[in-house]
Protein backbone atom coordinates (compact mmCIF):
# COMPACT_ATOMS: atom_id res chain seq x y z
CA UNK A 1 0.00 0.00 0.00
CA UNK A 2 1.38 3.39 -0.94
CA UNK A 3 -0.36 6.62 0.00
CA UNK A 4 1.49 9.80 -0.89
CA UNK A 5 -0.52 11.74 1.69
CA UNK A 6 0.71 9.77 4.69
CA UNK A 7 3.56 7.66 6.04
CA UNK A 8 2.34 5.05 8.53
CA UNK A 9 4.47 2.06 9.51
CA UNK A 10 2.22 -0.17 11.61
CA UNK A 11 -0.93 -2.04 10.64
CA UNK A 12 -3.11 -0.45 13.35
CA UNK A 13 -2.11 3.07 12.42
CA UNK A 14 -2.59 2.25 8.74
CA UNK A 15 -6.12 0.98 9.42
CA UNK A 16 -6.95 4.17 11.28
CA UNK A 17 -5.60 6.15 8.35
CA UNK A 18 -7.76 4.19 5.90
CA UNK A 19 -10.85 4.95 7.99
CA UNK A 20 -9.94 8.63 7.95
CA UNK A 21 -9.70 8.65 4.15
CA UNK A 22 -13.02 6.81 3.76
CA UNK A 23 -16.41 8.54 4.02
CA UNK A 24 -17.67 6.10 6.66
CA UNK A 25 -18.24 7.57 10.13
CA UNK A 26 -19.74 4.72 12.13
CA UNK A 27 -19.73 6.41 15.55
CA UNK A 28 -22.81 8.64 15.84
CA UNK A 29 -23.97 10.95 18.60
CA UNK A 30 -27.40 10.14 20.06
CA UNK A 31 -28.02 13.82 20.92
CA UNK A 32 -27.28 15.50 17.57
CA UNK A 33 -26.14 14.81 13.98
CA UNK A 34 -22.45 14.54 14.83
CA UNK A 35 -20.60 11.41 13.64
CA UNK A 36 -16.93 10.43 13.53
CA UNK A 37 -14.47 7.67 12.74
CA UNK A 38 -13.10 7.10 16.26
CA UNK A 39 -14.99 6.17 19.42
CA UNK A 40 -12.61 8.33 21.45
CA UNK A 41 -13.62 11.38 19.40
CA UNK A 42 -17.27 10.58 20.05
CA UNK A 43 -16.65 10.46 23.80
CA UNK A 44 -15.00 13.88 23.68
CA UNK A 45 -17.92 15.26 21.67
CA UNK A 46 -20.52 13.90 24.11
CA UNK A 47 -19.06 16.08 26.83
CA UNK A 48 -20.32 19.15 24.96
CA UNK A 49 -23.88 18.05 25.77
CA UNK A 50 -23.29 17.60 29.50
CA UNK A 51 -20.79 20.39 30.01
CA UNK A 52 -21.63 22.54 33.03
CA UNK A 53 -22.18 26.27 32.79
CA UNK A 54 -18.81 27.16 34.25
CA UNK A 55 -18.58 30.78 33.09
CA UNK A 56 -20.30 33.13 35.53
CA UNK A 57 -21.12 36.82 35.37
CA UNK A 58 -19.52 38.82 38.18
CA UNK A 59 -22.45 41.27 38.30
CA UNK A 60 -25.57 39.10 38.04
CA UNK A 61 -26.52 35.41 38.21
CA UNK A 62 -26.01 34.70 34.50
CA UNK A 63 -23.99 31.57 33.66
CA UNK A 64 -23.03 30.00 30.34
CA UNK A 65 -20.92 27.27 28.78
CA UNK A 66 -18.72 29.34 26.51
CA UNK A 67 -16.56 32.39 27.30
CA UNK A 68 -17.70 34.07 24.07
CA UNK A 69 -21.29 34.05 25.31
CA UNK A 70 -20.24 35.60 28.61
CA UNK A 71 -18.37 38.32 26.73
CA UNK A 72 -21.54 39.21 24.81
CA UNK A 73 -23.59 39.17 28.01
CA UNK A 74 -21.22 41.55 29.80
CA UNK A 75 -22.01 44.23 27.22
CA UNK A 76 -25.46 44.51 28.83
CA UNK A 77 -23.75 45.76 31.97
CA UNK A 78 -21.08 47.90 30.31
CA UNK A 79 -23.42 49.29 27.59
CA UNK A 80 -20.66 48.54 25.08
CA UNK A 81 -21.98 48.39 21.50
CA UNK A 82 -19.01 47.68 19.24
CA UNK A 83 -20.97 46.91 16.07
CA UNK A 84 -21.82 50.13 14.20
CA UNK A 85 -24.09 50.76 11.24
CA UNK A 86 -22.43 52.56 8.34
CA UNK A 87 -25.73 54.11 7.23
CA UNK A 88 -27.07 55.58 10.48
CA UNK A 89 -26.28 55.92 14.19
CA UNK A 90 -27.47 52.43 15.13
CA UNK A 91 -25.10 50.37 17.28
CA UNK A 92 -25.48 46.90 18.75
CA UNK A 93 -23.90 44.42 21.12
CA UNK A 94 -23.86 41.56 18.60
CA UNK A 95 -22.90 41.27 14.94
CA UNK A 96 -26.09 39.31 14.20
CA UNK A 97 -28.20 42.21 15.46
CA UNK A 98 -26.35 44.59 13.15
CA UNK A 99 -26.84 42.21 10.22
CA UNK A 100 -30.60 42.20 10.86
CA UNK A 101 -30.65 45.99 11.23
CA UNK A 102 -28.91 46.50 7.88
CA UNK A 103 -31.96 45.01 6.19
CA UNK A 104 -33.88 48.17 7.12
CA UNK A 105 -31.53 50.00 4.74
CA UNK A 106 -31.27 47.39 1.98
CA UNK A 107 -34.95 46.43 2.04
CA UNK A 108 -34.02 42.75 2.14
CA UNK A 109 -36.74 40.52 3.61
CA UNK A 110 -35.43 36.94 3.45
CA UNK A 111 -38.14 35.32 5.59
CA UNK A 112 -41.27 34.44 3.58
CA UNK A 113 -44.67 33.14 4.62
CA UNK A 114 -45.85 30.02 2.77
CA UNK A 115 -49.50 30.97 3.25
CA UNK A 116 -49.53 34.57 1.99
CA UNK A 117 -47.29 37.30 0.55
CA UNK A 118 -45.91 38.38 3.93
CA UNK A 119 -42.14 38.82 4.13
CA UNK A 120 -39.96 40.14 6.94
CA UNK A 121 -36.42 40.77 8.13
CA UNK A 122 -36.43 38.54 11.24
CA UNK A 123 -37.22 34.86 11.73
CA UNK A 124 -39.05 35.60 15.00
CA UNK A 125 -41.33 38.04 13.16
CA UNK A 126 -42.22 35.33 10.65
CA UNK A 127 -42.90 32.87 13.46
CA UNK A 128 -45.23 35.38 15.10
CA UNK A 129 -46.95 36.08 11.76
CA UNK A 130 -47.58 32.38 11.11
CA UNK A 131 -49.76 32.37 14.22
CA UNK A 132 -52.21 34.67 12.42
CA UNK A 133 -52.86 31.70 10.12
CA UNK A 134 -52.83 28.94 12.75
CA UNK A 135 -54.61 30.92 15.48
CA UNK A 136 -52.03 29.71 17.98
CA UNK A 137 -51.69 31.85 21.13
CA UNK A 138 -48.95 30.18 23.17
CA UNK A 139 -48.36 33.03 25.63
CA UNK A 140 -50.86 32.80 28.49
CA UNK A 141 -51.48 35.14 31.41
CA UNK A 142 -51.09 33.54 34.83
CA UNK A 143 -53.67 35.94 36.34
CA UNK A 144 -56.57 35.57 33.89
CA UNK A 145 -57.68 33.75 30.72
CA UNK A 146 -55.87 36.13 28.38
CA UNK A 147 -53.55 34.59 25.78
CA UNK A 148 -51.67 36.09 22.85
CA UNK A 149 -49.22 35.46 20.04
CA UNK A 150 -46.07 37.15 21.38
CA UNK A 151 -44.21 37.52 24.67
CA UNK A 152 -44.02 41.30 24.22
CA UNK A 153 -47.80 41.65 24.04
CA UNK A 154 -48.20 39.42 27.10
CA UNK A 155 -45.73 41.58 29.03
CA UNK A 156 -47.81 44.68 28.25
CA UNK A 157 -51.01 42.90 29.29
CA UNK A 158 -49.56 41.79 32.63
CA UNK A 159 -49.08 45.43 33.58
CA UNK A 160 -52.88 45.70 33.79
CA UNK A 161 -52.62 43.32 36.76
CA UNK A 162 -49.45 44.66 38.36
CA UNK A 163 -50.26 48.34 37.85
CA UNK A 164 -46.70 48.86 36.66
CA UNK A 165 -46.31 52.00 34.54
CA UNK A 166 -42.63 52.17 33.60
CA UNK A 167 -42.95 54.91 30.97
CA UNK A 168 -42.91 58.25 32.79
CA UNK A 169 -43.38 61.74 31.42
CA UNK A 170 -40.43 64.06 32.05
CA UNK A 171 -42.71 67.12 32.03
CA UNK A 172 -45.48 66.07 34.44
CA UNK A 173 -46.59 63.25 36.73
CA UNK A 174 -48.19 61.07 34.06
CA UNK A 175 -46.92 57.52 33.58
CA UNK A 176 -47.98 54.77 31.19
CA UNK A 177 -47.89 51.02 30.64
CA UNK A 178 -46.71 51.35 27.02
CA UNK A 179 -44.12 53.55 25.34
CA UNK A 180 -46.50 54.39 22.48
CA UNK A 181 -48.93 55.96 24.97
CA UNK A 182 -46.14 58.10 26.42
CA UNK A 183 -45.16 59.20 22.91
CA UNK A 184 -48.73 60.33 22.23
CA UNK A 185 -48.95 62.11 25.59
CA UNK A 186 -45.74 64.06 24.97
CA UNK A 187 -47.50 65.82 22.10
CA UNK A 188 -49.65 67.62 24.66
CA UNK A 189 -46.45 69.29 25.85
CA UNK A 190 -44.77 69.82 22.47
CA UNK A 191 -47.93 70.91 20.64
CA UNK A 192 -47.15 68.49 17.80
CA UNK A 193 -50.23 67.42 15.80
CA UNK A 194 -49.01 65.00 13.12
CA UNK A 195 -52.45 63.74 12.05
CA UNK A 196 -53.94 66.14 9.50
CA UNK A 197 -57.33 66.16 7.80
CA UNK A 198 -57.31 66.00 3.99
CA UNK A 199 -60.57 67.94 3.77
CA UNK A 200 -59.88 70.92 6.06
CA UNK A 201 -57.22 72.50 8.28
CA UNK A 202 -57.97 70.25 11.27
CA UNK A 203 -55.01 68.41 12.87
CA UNK A 204 -54.67 66.37 16.06
CA UNK A 205 -52.37 64.27 18.20
CA UNK A 206 -53.90 60.81 17.62
CA UNK A 207 -54.99 58.69 14.66
CA UNK A 208 -58.26 57.63 16.32
CA UNK A 209 -59.23 61.27 16.92
CA UNK A 210 -58.61 62.06 13.25
CA UNK A 211 -60.71 59.05 12.25
CA UNK A 212 -63.61 60.36 14.35
CA UNK A 213 -63.19 63.84 12.83
CA UNK A 214 -63.31 62.47 9.27
CA UNK A 215 -66.88 61.32 9.95
CA UNK A 216 -67.93 64.97 10.10
CA UNK A 217 -67.06 65.09 6.39
CA UNK A 218 -68.33 61.66 5.36
CA UNK A 219 -71.54 61.81 7.43
CA UNK A 220 -70.90 58.29 8.74
CA UNK A 221 -72.55 57.57 12.11
CA UNK A 222 -71.49 54.05 13.12
CA UNK A 223 -72.61 54.24 16.76
CA UNK A 224 -76.32 53.41 16.94
CA UNK A 225 -78.76 53.36 19.83
CA UNK A 226 -80.38 49.97 20.45
CA UNK A 227 -83.57 51.61 21.75
CA UNK A 228 -84.29 54.21 19.05
CA UNK A 229 -83.07 55.55 15.70
CA UNK A 230 -80.38 57.78 17.20
CA UNK A 231 -76.86 57.41 15.79
CA UNK A 232 -73.68 59.45 16.12
CA UNK A 233 -70.09 59.79 14.97
CA UNK A 234 -68.42 59.04 18.33
CA UNK A 235 -69.02 56.40 20.97
CA UNK A 236 -68.59 59.03 23.69
CA UNK A 237 -71.71 60.80 22.44
CA UNK A 238 -73.78 57.61 22.42
CA UNK A 239 -73.09 56.92 26.10
CA UNK A 240 -74.85 60.07 27.49
CA UNK A 241 -77.74 59.49 25.07
CA UNK A 242 -78.31 56.01 26.51
CA UNK A 243 -78.79 57.54 29.97
CA UNK A 244 -81.85 59.49 28.78
From TrEMBL:
Gene3D superfamilies: Classic Zinc Finger (3.30.160.60). Its main location: nucleus. GO terms for biological process: regulation of gene expression. GO terms for cellular component: nucleus. SMART domains: ZnF_C2H2. It comes from the Eukaryota. It is found in: Nucleus. Keywords: DNA-binding, Metal-binding, Nucleus, Repeat, Transcription, Transcription regulation, Zinc, Zinc-finger. Pfam families: zf-C2H2, zf-C2H2_16, zf-H2C2_2. One of its GO terms (molecular function) is DNA binding. Residues 27-54, 55-82, 83-110, 111-138, 139-166, 167-194, 195-222, 223-244 form the C2H2-type domain. PANTHER family: ZINC FINGER PROTEIN, ZINC FINGER PROTEIN 510. Belongs to the krueppel C2H2-type zinc-finger protein family. This is Putative zn finger protein. The lineage of its organism: Eukaryota, Metazoa, Ecdysozoa, Arthropoda, Hexapoda.
